[in-house]
Design brief:
Length: 256
């Protein structure tokens, strides 16, 4: 009787293993600003019968730190070069797979119902335009969107006006939400974020010369579990995915 019970338990175990997934699936860690665009590009990836990718979005800094700590990601897409370099320095990306995928623009936004008008330029009265409010932006000490924003405001000589009046956010989408909900009268986000949120409007665009080029590099993570990681990254750099990204306001990297 005992032998028969052991046989049945063993048979059930083998059956369960046969029905279980053969692999963990493709997992992508990406910058929060890519949420709608990358989700749509992921849909194009699966249109030909490929297995869908699991997409996880957040601040590039948070995503990079999680990968460095061993989070099971196969592909990483950052909103700047610095966090990709940081992972590369720790041996956590496959150097040969790295490629620059996309570019973006930086904009000043206000709630859609607000009447504020401001011309982006040196010494603009940004502090005055804030009134009693604060400027929403991603954390300038860690998050790419915040770093770009601080660089632009510094170059325009208006950073001293707002440095003590920030409403910092954990990522650019959180900064966008602050403005959309009316918790901040103005915010600095990517142009693609403003395009995705009807509750805000663009007050002005920051000239490209005011901040480092906004580049989204992608790479396969060292020890990627899914063999489709490289193919997925190549797909994102191809014409079908690029057409999707352009619909969401992104552009190809100049010279890329």
């Amino acid at each position: 009787m005992r032998d028969r019970r052991a046989f049945l338990v063993g048979a059930a175990s083998l059956a369960a293993q046969a029905c279980a997934p053969t692999g963990p699936g493709l997992t992508v860690f990406a910058a929060a600003s890519l949420q709608e665009a990358l989700t749509a590009a992921g849909g194009a990836w699966t249109a030909d019968g490929r297995a869908p990718a699991t997409l996880s979005f957040g601040a590039s800094s948070a995503m990079a730190r999680q990968i460095a700590e061993g989070a099971p990601a196969d592909v990483f897409i950052s909103a700047d070069e610095d966090w990709m370099d940081w992972l590369a320095g720790r041996g956590r990306i496959v150097a040969a797979s790295r490629r620059d995928l996309l570019s973006n623009q930086l904009v000043l936004i206000a709630p859609a119902s607000a009447s504020v008008a401001l011309t982006i330029g040196p010494d603009m009265p940004l502090g005055q335009a804030l009134g009693d409010g604060r400027l929403a932006m991603a954390d300038p000490d860690a998050v790419p969107a915040g770093r770009y924003a601080r660089a632009a405001l510094t170059r325009l000589k208006v950073w001293p006006q707002v440095a003590g009046r920030l409403l910092p956010a954990e990522n650019v989408r959180a900064a966008l939400a602050y403005v959309a909900r009316g918790e901040a009268p103005l915010g600095v986000v990517y142009a693609t974020d403003a395009l995705a949120e009807p509750a805000v409007r663009v007050v002005g665009r920051f000239p490209a010369w005011t901040h480092p080029p906004i580049v989204y590099p992608g790479a396969v993570v060292t020890g990627a579990r899914d063999p489709a990681a490289g193919a997925f990254l190549n797909f994102l750099g191809g014409p079908r995915a690029m057409a999707v990204f352009r619909r969401y306001g992104f552009s190809a990297v100049a010279g890329g």
